[in-house]
Each structure stands twice: as structure tokens, then as C-alpha cells.
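Weekly modeling sync, notes
Attendees: AB, CL, MP (scribe)

Item 1: holo prediction request
CL wants a bound-state model with fructose -6-phosphate before deciding which constructs to order. AB pointed out that an apo prediction alone won't tell us much about the pocket. Agreed to run with the ligand included and paste results into these notes for async review.

Input as submitted:
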Amino acid sequence: MCGIVGYIGSKDLGAVILVGLEKLEYRGYDSAGIAVIHNGRLVVKKRSGRIGDLYKLVNGMAFNGKAGIGHTRWATHGGVNDINAHPHVDCKSQIAVSHNGIIENFQELKLELEKSGHKFVSETDSEVIPHLIEEYYEGSLFDAVLKAVKRLQGSFALVILSSMEPDRIIGVKMGSPLIIGVGKDEMLLSSDQMPLLSHTKDVVVLNDGEICVLTQNSWSVYDFDGNPKQKYITKIDWTVDMAEKGEFSHFMLKEIFEQPEVLRRNLEYYIRGNEVTLLKDFNLRRLLLNKDRILIQASGTSMHAGLVGKYLLEKLARIQTDVDYSSEFRYREPVLGQNTLVIAISQSGETADTLAGVKLVKENGFEVLSIVNVKDSSIARESDYVLYINAGPEIGVASTKAYTAQILILFLLSLEVGLLRGFVSEEDFSRMRDELFELPGKINDVLCESGYVKEVATRFLDAKHFVFLGRGINYPTALEGALKLKEVSYVHATGYAAGEMKHGPLALVDKDLPVVFVNPKTSVYEKSLNNIEEVRARGGIIISVASSGDLKMEMLSDYVFKMPEVNELLTPLVSIIPLQLFAYNVAVGRGCDVDRPRNLAKSVTVE
Ligand code: F6R
């Protein structure tokens, strides 16, 4: 987590870095700081709190240097306070470092440096880095950084600035992301594309084990032995306004409402006439056709999309599919083999556990297909094949549009493999293709009911617990609905398979417990009705997601979020929409910081 940024150029230093940090704030937001060159010296301004607090501290100061760095923090080592905020500096305050990641051997390095007389002020792991560079400095910042990084264990992306060499900034990548923005008379470094968008579309994505040196008009990349590396400029295809809230009060709401457009974009991109073109890469097509087992590994919401994928791949493509949390997968010696294809799903493409899962599969000699949103992200680059979900920047910490886009890609993949393997007929394919193109309109219909969802949400602002239940392909919807609610509104919510209620959780039900049933018309619809009766009989309050015109559900429920009838396999793409809106409205009603929930960060780049 944490966001780091660096700038060298002639624009207003403080403003460029602060605006850059704002764009990265979703990566971590408990403290922030900048270090800039002013009158030939390093000036560091940092404090706990949001970027807004840092603005107050900087108070529009004009800095006359050309280079600066910044950091927005999500604490790992050391509490949240002004001293632990980055950038950290060496003993003489001549070298400043912003760090994203974890230095695993920091205790040992700290002891060693203290013995040589270095004085530490913070409790962070990161502070060892400027001291180590100071220790090795003999007239060349680059040489000192080369020596220092060889001593560091763990994952790190660094942006380094020194008043001794104020005409450059240095970046280092090992495990955490770092991108160079190549501008006209200016160069930037950033954890992701967002702060670069308003300056340039030209970027150079660094790989692990690379160091870059930026001056106002040049960039160069080296390996950790100092050998130059040939790198190429690529173009960002996101635009500035894609990363703005526009008329919406929160990114989360904007992203919920963007879903019809994201789905339409993907359908138009991946479906050409009578064909799905996801597997146009011949090798990927061959790979998928030769496997009889798929193992999906992902985290959080992406893992829930993977669970929906299990139903789709098994139903349409008839391939046995298992789904695992990446944090479990990577540590339990999973059974891999020639017949198993591992799929990694990640919005950010940077989640540490998912990335480690990808590396584990590769180390075992097998190939990985990933389903990712952020182009050129670490997971995309480590994987053999990538399918992009084309959702545009997702900035709200709670994932919404990426979830439905991931499910759509899994649906298209299942459909294409099913067709190629002969489990889906041409007729079924044409019918499903037509149904797919109707989806954006149907999701719009649900979004039009957002006023009612808000009204219902307002009645539950004081509820202490929620249970979300679903069956079959909507069991993951229940898990995802519960996750959305708890992460943005801080209300406890648990998601469960509806049929499992009587095996334990039914004991929770009393007249104060709201139970959210996801029960659109599907093959397990009738079964869920029984589960609803069981809850009703015990006095629980029933909120449901049901197909429009379903009178039975209306009679059984206290509140109903209606959705148009869709093919069973497409229901998760629609049934989640009212639950996203519900979570959003409960959170807003409770005064929570919807886009930046406490203790969370968008990209979980630490274990
Ligand atoms: C929840 C949420 C997280 C992410 C998880 C994985 O709303 O956003 O649970 O889904 O951290 O992130 P990615 O998909 O970037 O790997």
C-alpha cells in the first residue's frame, strides 16, 4: 500500500506533488508528506492525517528547487504519527526517501547503522534506507543507492531525493510498483498512472530489480549492478476525466453508475458478430482447450468474482474449477499439474498475495492467465496471458465496477470455451449473446431505483448486524453484498449460503436482525423460498433482491429491491447492483468516509 511520487521540472513543486498525492490517496491515507529542494536544501513537511491536512501545513509555500518527492502512508511498522510519516531522512537531512513496501531485515540493518553512529527518530522500517544511503555515500548518489538496495530484503519501491545532487531523483523497484512519467521538460515517478495523467501519457514501467535516474530532460534505467537497461515508452490509455468524480458525490457512487457503460464497452470489444474474441491468442486457446481443471486464486471482491466464475466455467465449459483466496493458495503447496490452469484475478494487478500466487505457479513451471484491470501492472506483466476487464480507473476503495467487469470476462471466457468444446450450441450462444447486449439496459433499470434503495438504507442506519444469504450462482453475491456493507459502513455483516442457515447461523435470527436474501428467479429459487420462510418464522426482518413481478417474494419480504428477469447465469451481474447501492447509502447515512474507509487501502501491496 502507500503511494509514492516524485517530480523534477519547472512547475510549482509543492502543488504538483500535493496534487499527485491526492491522486494516490486511495492507496493509503493515514499520513502524508513531501520533501522538496528549496534554497539548495531539503525541506520536509509531513504529518499524520489526510492530504488535506498536509495542504494546510504546506500552506501554499513556494519552493524554488526543481525536484521533490511525496508519500501517502498506510501504516505497517510504527504507529500513525507525524514522525513515522514519510519521507524519511538521513542524519544530516540531505537524503530523503519515500518508500512503499516492507523492509524485512530492517531490525538488523538498524542495529548495524546505530553502531556506526546513525541516529533514528521513527519506529518505521523505512528509515533505515536514507541512513544506509548516507552510510554508502562517497560523492555519487546513484552508487550509494546501488550499494544500499543490495542490502535490503523485502518489497520496496523507492523515490529518493538529495540536496547534494538536486538535479535528479532516483527511483528503485523491487516488489512494489513504480512508473516513470516522461514529460516535456519534466519527469515524474509514481506508484501508478493516476498522478501522471495530467502531465503526460508517455510512461516507462519499471520491472523488479531496476533503478532509474531522472533529470528534468532525461530518464535512464539500470539493473542493480548499475548496467544500463533498454526500456521502452508505452502510452497510458486512461484520461484525466476518467479519474474525476464529475457530478457524483463519491467515486464509489460514480463507479456503481458506470457499470452499464463498462459492460457495454467490454461486450463491444470482445464480441464480434458470432464470435467471442477473448481467445484470439492461439496459444491461450490451445492452453484452455487442453485443461481439465481450473484453479482461480484472488483476494477479496476479486475472489468473489472468481466464485461466480466457478459456476460459469463448470456450467458452460464443463471444466472443474476450484477457487482459493490468494493468501491461502500461496502457502499451502497447491496441487498443480499439466492439466490445471491457474487464473489470477485482480483489479489493481498489484495485490501482494495474488502476485505471490502467480510467481509460485511460474516457479513450478506452469503458465498463468490473469484477469486484470490495470494495464502493465505487476500481475499482468508476470502472467503468460492477460485478459483486461477495461473498467477504467477504479478509485473508490470498495470495488464495484471491477467486480461486474470481472464476472463478465469470466462469463465470456466460459461461453467461448463452452462453444469450442461443444458444450454450448451455436443456438444457445446466439441467444446468450443477445441477452448479454440487453444487460446494460437492465442494470440501468436497477440503477433507476436507487432512490428506493436509499430510502430502505435510511431505515437501517442503526442496525448492528446483517446476514446476507444467497444460493447457487448468487451465493457469491451474498458474500460480496456483505463485504461491501462492512467495509464502507463498518457494520458487521456476514454472507452465507442460504441452505446452510439451519446448520448454525439460524440461531442468530431475532426480530432485530435484518436478513438480506438474494433470490432472483433461478433454478434454486424455490429452495431459497423455504429458507426465507425459516427466517420469517423466527421474526427476522427480510430485505430481498428479487425478480420484478415476483409476488411471492414481495409477500415474504419487508423490503424488496427489484431486478429485471435475466438468464440465471447473468443474475450475479444484476443482483449485486442494489446491494452496492445499499452499502453505499448505509455508509453515507452513518457519516462514513465512503471512498476511503478506515484501515483499508485500495492496493494491498503488503502481505
Ligand atoms: C473490496 C475490495 C478488496 C479487493 C482486494 C483485491 O471492495 O476492493 O477486497 O477486491 O483487495 O484487490 P485486487 O482486485 O486489486 O487484487
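Recorded for review: The chain has three domains: 3-241, 245-446, 449-594.
Action items: CL to compare against the apo run; MP to circulate these notes.
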